[in-house]
Amino acid sequence: MDLRICRDAVKLLKEYSDEAMPNEAVAILVGRANDLYGQVDVIYLVPNEDRSPLSFSVSPEILALITRELGERDIIGIFHSHPFWKAYPSSADIEHMWGYRFWLILGTDGMRCFTLLKGNVIEVNIKVEDRSCDLVRVKK
Ligand SMILES: [Zn+2]
Prior knowledge:
By secondary structure, the chain is α/β, with parallel strands linked by helices. It has one domain: 3-Layer(aba) Sandwich (Cytidine Deaminase, domain 2), CATH 3.40.140. Helix content is 21%, strand content 42%. It has helices at residues 7-20, 60-68, 91-97; strands spanning 2-6, 26-33, 37-46, 74-81, 102-107, 110-117, 120-129, 134-137. It is globular and about 35 Å long. The protein starts with a strand and ends with a strand. Residues 80, 82, 90, 93 line the site of zinc ion.
């Protein structure tokens, strides 16, 4: 399984995570997905309601706002950073992210992507593409 994402978006997610330090950064990934791949078209940089280095949450109001703008697209995944840990889903992540297909995580060892398949955490290949994604910064 692949997650197709634009090169400029990967760079921006890294910068956004640096800005959020020491707290975790969060973003919502919008695009299209099927059983073979996900394609990220729009990235919403959203505030981490927890303002914590160890956890994150997104306000329901912001999720509702994004949902209203979806059109033909879907929310296909969620990004968050681990400022002090490796890019692997924590037990809390697994509990909270099951509703999202792709989990993109930036950790101290780089960016990795995972999905949950029949209760197991499976790594997804990140395919960086030379195209552009729309980036939306959602303020509180
Ligand atoms: Zn996490």
